[in-house]
Design a protein that fits this description.
Elements (H helix, E strand, L loop, with lengths): L1 H6 L8 H31 L8 E4 H11 L1 H6 L3 E6 L3 E4 L1 H18 L5 E9 L2 E8 L28 H11 L3 E6 L5 E8 L8
Helix pairs in contact: 2-6, 3-5, 5-6
Length: 204
């Protein structure tokens, strides 16, 4: 809080070098907090303790919220976002589903070349919700695809802590769904999150 207050000028004008140091510190803090949250969720799902109460989730609202959070980075990279978001509601853990969606969209923005197009679609068919995130990034080699949703793999799309896509898989599976990666005919990366849609709250 003190670092943020100082950056906003609460303690008077700051030299450029010191301001840059503060901004780097704030960015590092945000990265550590995000990692801690991921580790807590991984522990929860791996221990079988993902027993939070289910609620009705507006999936379209979650996707729109994540895209809004990512808007500064999207604009900085001059990305065009094509959206086709249908109204989809299902029973699930809203916070965890938002994390899964954030992981996919954050990954797509990170690896999209500047000035390229990001396509995001959401719909429902045959009792399943499907979120498709397609980018024009370098993609994943064929040899790495089988390991893409495992822990601590790195390099290329989905790299970083090695937890994001793994956690997305665990969240999808805990909701009775799946997540998969394919390379389209136009040589683009496509991540698809599929979740069952139920008209009533699940039991148990």
């Amino acid at each position: 809080m003190n670092m943020e207050a100082a950056r906003r000028g609460a303690y008077g004008p700051l030299p450029d070098a010191y301001r840059a140091t503060l901004e780097n510190g704030l960015e590092s803090n945000a990265t550590l907090l995000a990692l801690a949250e991921k580790l807590l969720l991984v522990t929860k799902y791996e221990s079988g303790e993902a027993d939070d109460d289910m609620e009705e989730v507006n999936l379209r609202a979650l996707v729109q919220g994540v895209l809004e959070d990512l808007r500064p980075r999207i604009e900085a990279s001059r990305l065009t976002v094509e959206r086709d978001l249908r109204a989809v509601r299902l029973w699930g853990r809203s916070h965890d589903l938002r994390r899964a969606i954030q992981n996919l969209l954050d990954n797509a923005v990170k690896f999209s070349p500047p000035g390229s197009t990001l396509r995001v679609s959401l719909g429902e068919e045959d009792g399943e919700a499907g979120l498709n995130v397609q980018d024009e990034g370098p993609g994943v080699s064929q040899a790495r695809i089988p390991h893409l949703f495992q822990r601590f793999r790195g390099g290329g799309a989905g790299s970083g802590t090695g937890l994001g896509l793994y956690l997305t898989r665990r969240i999808a599976e805990a909701h009775g769904g799946t997540v998969r990666y394919t390379r389209t005919g136009q040589n683009r990366s496509l991540f698809t999150l599929t979740l069952p849609v139920s008209g009533e709250q699940p039991h148990g």
